[in-house]
């Protein structure tokens, strides 16, 4: 059976450009176990876990004449060794060399004639460590039918969890005529469905309108700001396909101390830390910073992350948030013009509180239910909202996804650190991804190589901004 790309997945697939490869990445660093972890062992593990993410054996096939969205089809010549690769740093490999390698790998687009993902085993890292870098196209990972491959190879214990043996055989590839006939049939069915939705809407307008209003609650702030132009900023410039990558490792306990002192949320503290770093970065560049200066951020942030104690307890029980219902995307003006760190935090906390009061979480099922008659712009107001309005709506994208607060393993090797690598959108020189794991908060900074040559300065200023808030809380 042919599966068609969703509207959002198709939009990400077609957004691919030479300067904006649309893949998400993840860098994980491990302590090498006593017996080591060979490339062959990792290859075997990945192949075993592919049954959990069947789309990772599928590739995108476009329909002739653009009659419909592309479809997922099994790769008849699937080659696991093409996707799982190995690389090595000159011993003893430094973290800086690892980050340079990640930047180069992030710069390369994926081969769209094959399944849209790659994984690299990076050996030779100093202090008896190795790294695994994965990248998957944004159209592939939707959080529902396809998870990121780096997630499914992780185990909560050193012992590798058993998996049922699977003999995978690719389904026969559909013919061109079959795809065209399916697209034409879908067009007819969609027209009939549209008339049915219209009759339902006219028959019960009040009910439908009420549901629509509730559904768009979480993106009300985005809609109101859609006609506003983001402040001018060096964060917005023409970018190339080449990248720089930097990381920041901080302790989750520090954010909790600040949260307890000022009665806010951990997410508020994170955004205040980023605000301070952006303020000092602008000053380091000689940019004019007045009291009213702001940096507008698009924040597709997990609601689950606002309660770290619940996050800890749930992760220990092996419970995971449903990504379809736990993500809230909104815009916030970071008060970079405010010189006082505590006042910056207060501004952020009030803005976040206002957002929480006026928004509601929207599940994917609700959006699907409304898609028959809702405005087309509603489809863009999800976790992937950033891609549609990047040039005029915001300066910076900040993503935050909570991870488990207990150790994870790959083939008996304990994961020490995990850094997200968010894609750069058009004219966006920097994206900041965060994730919490095992008592720490990890920042991954993906930046344009030319426009953001000083991304390491931003990384250093994130440390300074956090320390400034810690000093104030003491």
Write up this protein.
With 474 residues, the chain is of the alpha+beta class. The chain has a domain of 242 residues: Chloramphenicol Acetyltransferase. 36% of the residues lie in helices and 23% in strands. It is built from 15 helices and 15 strands. The strands form three sheets. A six-stranded mixed beta sheet has the order 5-6-7-2-13-12. Strands 8-15-14-11-9-10 form a six-stranded mixed beta sheet. Strands 1-4-3 form a three-stranded antiparallel beta sheet, with no helix packed on it. Strand 12 and strand 13 form a beta hairpin. Helix 9 crosses helix 10, helix 10 packs across helix 12 and helix 10 crosses helix 15. The longest helix is centred in the middle third of the chain and has 28 residues. The protein starts with a strand and ends with a helix. It comes from Rhodococcus opacus PD630. Pathway: Glycerolipid metabolism; triacylglycerol biosynthesis; Lipid metabolism. InterPro entries: Acyl_transf_WS/DGAT, O-acyltransferase_WSD1-like, O-acyltransferase_WSD1_C, O-acyltransferase_WSD1_N. GO terms for molecular function: diacylglycerol O-acyltransferase activity. This is Diacylglycerol O-acyltransferase.
Query: Strands across the major sheet, in which order?
Result: 5-6-7-2-13-12
- What gap, in angstroms, lies between the N and C termini? 61 Å
Rg from Cα: 23 Å
Instruction: Specify the structural class.
Output: alpha+beta
* CATH classification class of the domain at 215-400 and 418-473: Alpha Beta
Poorly predicted tracts of residues? 200-227, 302-327, 360-383
Sum up the overall morphology in one term: globular
Order of helices and strands: EHEHEEHEHEEHHHHEHHEHEHHHEEEEEH
- What fraction of residues sit in β-strands? 15-25%
Mean pLDDT: 79
Helix proportion? 25-40%
CATH topology of the domain at 215-400 and 418-473: Chloramphenicol Acetyltransferase
Major pleated sheet: 6 strands, mixed
**Name given to the CATH architecture of the domain at 215-400 and 418-473:** 2-Layer Sandwich
**DSSP strand count:** 15
SS field, number of helical segments: 15
